[in-house]
Amino acid sequence: MELSGGVALVTGGAGGLGEATVRRLAEAGAKVVIADLAEDRGEKLAKELGESAVFVRTDVTDEDSVLAALDAAATLGPLRVAVSAHGGPVAKSRVLDREGNPYALDLFRRTVDIYLTGTFNVLRLAASFMARNEPNESGARGVIVNTASIAAFEGQIGQSDYSAAKGGVVGLGLVAARDLSPLGIRVMTIAPGTFFTPAFGIPEEQAQQAWGDKVPFPRRMGRPAEYGALVQHIAENDYLNGEVIRIDGAQRFGPK
């Protein structure tokens, strides 16, 4: 699918994996809607990219909020790409703590709501906009890229909510791809390993020392630009559909 002349929506587009994706798609000629709650960073990035991007404050768990971002995308042209790369708070805790107290149900629900329900919310609404597009010569109308995690497959101690949410994103991918195939809309899932983003809150060198050596090869943390490059390839390769791609340097999480 040709990116030039089309429009992309990227949730979490103001930082980390999302920002790298926004930059990559803009460089490829797409107009990009930066959908995020981080207004200062989002506005700054949109200003830097000029006519290639606009920022819309977006809560992925809210239908009206996502629709507002999609409406903004529609004013720029046909929505061809939607990427869910948003993050959110995660409270790392075991199912039972040392005193035998169970993990708070509201915290579990919050994580699932952001990472799984929010992803589905974006997917279903973006698909409804893509369905209005004229298909290209191969019958394609658009592509949706969801972000899981290798924690979906090897959840670590204390990751019950995050691992369950990301496992749900993995399970959603093939079903959604089959549902949307008659419309020419593809659905792909990326499962990143340990990528360095500002969310770590520490200098990159320190993060690399702590986590980089655990990656078989390359022996370092992932770079957001590598995630963005994969999104671009997925968008441009029409035969990628219904699959999960791990991007992790052959890393497999251990129990801790």
Q: What tags apply to this protein structure?
A:
single chain, 256 residues, Rossmann fold, 16% strand
What does this structure look like?
The protein has one domain (7-247): Rossmann fold. 40% of the residues lie in helices and 16% in strands. The protein has 7 helices and 7 strands. It has helices spanning 16-27, 39-49, 63-74, 105-130, 160-180, 204-211, 224-236; strands spanning 7-11, 31-36, 53-57, 79-84, 142-147, 185-192, 244-247. Helix 1 crosses helix 7, helix 3 packs parallel to helix 4 and helix 4 runs parallel beside helix 5 (160-180). The radius of gyration is 18 Å and the shape is globular. It starts with 6 loop residues before the first strand and ends in a 9-residue tail after the last strand. The mean pLDDT is 96.
Mean pLDDT across the residues is: 96
CATH classification class: Alpha Beta
Shape: globular
Intertermini distance: 41 Å
N-to-C series of helices and strands: EHEHEHEHEHEHHE
Q: Strand fraction band?
A: 15-25%
- Identify the strand order in the major beta sheet: 3-2-1-4-5-6-7
Tally of helical segments: 7
Q: Please summarize the sheet with the most strands.
A: 7 strands, parallel
Radius of gyration: 18 Å
Into which percent range does the helicity of residues fall? 40-55%
User: Regions with pLDDT < 50 over 5+ consecutive residues?
Assistant: none
Give the strand tally: 7
